[in-house]
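Troubleshooting log. The previous structure file for this entry was overwritten by mistake, so regenerating from the original sequence record. Sequence copied from the archived sheet and checked twice against the printout by T.R.
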Amino acid sequence: MYGRQRLAGDGGQRGRAKPKGPACDAGAFEYVPPPRPPVLSVPAAITAEATGPAGAVVTYAATANDDVDGAVPVTCSPASGATFPFGTTTVVCTASDRDDNTSVAEFTVTVADMTPPVLSLPANMTVDGTGTLTPVSYVASATDVVDGAVPVSCTPASGSGFSVGTTTGNCSAHDNSGNGRSGRFTVTVLGADLAVSQAVAVTVTGKGNTTTRTLTFSITVTNNGPLAASGVTMHTSAAPYQYTGGTFPKGVAGSCTVASSGTAIDCTLTNPLGSGASVTATVQVKTQNIVTNVARVSATTPDPEPGNNTSSLQKRLGRCNAPGLAFRRELRGLRRA
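Regenerated output below.
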């Protein structure tokens, strides 16, 4: 391996010994140390992400430089650009100069699966309820670049019964290397969707100082959901004004109860309010001023859409019906006469 000698002052000629001293002194020679092999440079240990079941294509650079020959070729096995399998592979590189002085170096290439699977989940779902629990089916899948399709675990599982309201589905998947990914989606089961609206009528009785005005608010509740609503209650407030009572139409089972303060009233249905059905309760309040009547509907059956459960209606009473105003007008007429 170290087989070349250089004679001092010989211009770099190889494999020769130069006599020293007089020409007749044939035994006098100067020893020239063997030249060094090429200096070989290889990469540090490489870790590569697997790109498929076979492993990964890995490229690298290895160089060698010789004192005499300059840059010399490097041969490595496995070669740069080869497909490296999973695990750790030792790459062996060699470089030789023209005198076959050779250097050898090694480094390792480790190929691993470090990327979790790609998880595909359904979009958020909204379904009509069919009962206390509504079966809902969906599809969730996961694909890994190395392992291909991998199992997905979801809770609640596809085909499970979902209760009325919004439930979050949680799913996860892992590849054979232990890389995991999780995701979620929601399932909203529509039950009773109660909407409340109002109308108001003014009833004026008496004259002059005995004038009385009664506001009758008609509060209508409609069930727009697919399921019947149980325990429907209309809570109405017109504070600080007081209610005189409330009723349901004839044939509708229910009752209205005025709060002890008199400024609120609850009207509750005895029977469930079916899908698509409506019911109206009327409540009365006496006042001479601006009244804001706030009605809220609730039920023991969950309502996933609470945004339409409240209605606010303001009524401004005209001065022409104010108590005593008619009497004062009659009095002014008499004085003019």
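Residues 1-17, 320-337 have pLDDT under 50 and may be disordered. Archived copy saved in two places this time.
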